[in-house]
Write a structure and sequence with these properties.
The chain has helices at 19-32, 57-67, 85-91, 106-112, 169-182, 208-219, 238-246, 260-270, and strands spanning 10-13, 39-44, 47-53, 75-79, 96-101, 119-122, 135-140, 143-148, 160-161, 190-194, 197-202, 227-230, 250-253, 273-276. It is of the alpha/beta class and 284 residues long. The chain folds into two domains: 6-122, AICAR transformylase, duplication domain (Cytidine Deaminase, domain 2), CATH 3.40.140.20; 156-276, Cytidine Deaminase, domain 2 (3-Layer(aba) Sandwich), CATH 3.40.140. The strands form three sheets. A six-stranded mixed beta sheet has the order 1-6-5-4-2-3, sandwiched between helices. Helix 3 (85-91) links the parallel strand 4 (75-79) and strand 5 (96-101). The longest helix has 14 residues, at 19-32.
Length: 284
Amino acid sequence: TNEPCITTAVQLQGKPLSYNNILDSDCAIETIKEFKEPTCVIIKHATPCGIASASTLLKAWRDAYATDTYSPFGGIVSFNRRIGKRVAEELKKLFLEVIITPSFTRDALNIFQQKKNLRLLEVKKLDKYDERNRIQFRSVIGGMLAQERDITLISPREWRVVTKKKPTEEQLRSMEFAVRCVKHIKSNSVVFVKGTRTVGIGGGQTARVDATWIATKKGGENIKGSIMASDAFFPFRDAVDVAAEAGVEAIVQPGGSIRDEEVIKAADEHGIAMVFTGQRYFKH
């Protein structure tokens, strides 16, 4: 394949990659591909626990890490720019399993050599790839599944504002970032964002309201003034109520529920702007 991915990665140091390391690294690489600005993605158990884009890689790392300072322990971190000395010095403070980047400076490699077991993966062209495979495969016992990859995003110009309150231009930009994040979080999933950094993530839950509750509890005061993205429609208004109580200001979601009117009414009651994208994810 010409696409940068886990199978094109070159390991520069550390213990051999385990089965779980490969799965987690695949998730980290595929998530980082969503973003063009300097970005950091932190993965734990095959799902993101912090994502941020910023003007510098160091700020992106600090913002992503601030999302959840507990979960990155033993995690995987990916970047879409070369890692230099200052970022390496920050990363060295934590116990991490794998660090992924298009390249490392010599200073960064020297710093990481002090942690012999830390796995370093170099994925060339991760910062400037222009080709993506169209088909995704997954195994089940006794067989193989194949489907088209979820790599197309509906343009924000085609999104639909459904509430009385309209989102600001800044909120719309944050919504686009949030949608790129939430599509990589195991369903049912929600993400809370400020600017281009996550401040709360809830995923892998059997009820959307539980994902929302987890994200708001983890995010705490940081949820106030944020925007919320959901990977699929809200089947009930309960998650909107939980998010509103935590201080969310706008919501982006696919829409398409038989209770859309109830959900829109809840947003209007709380004075929250809501946008329908018409595109859901349901990552499994």
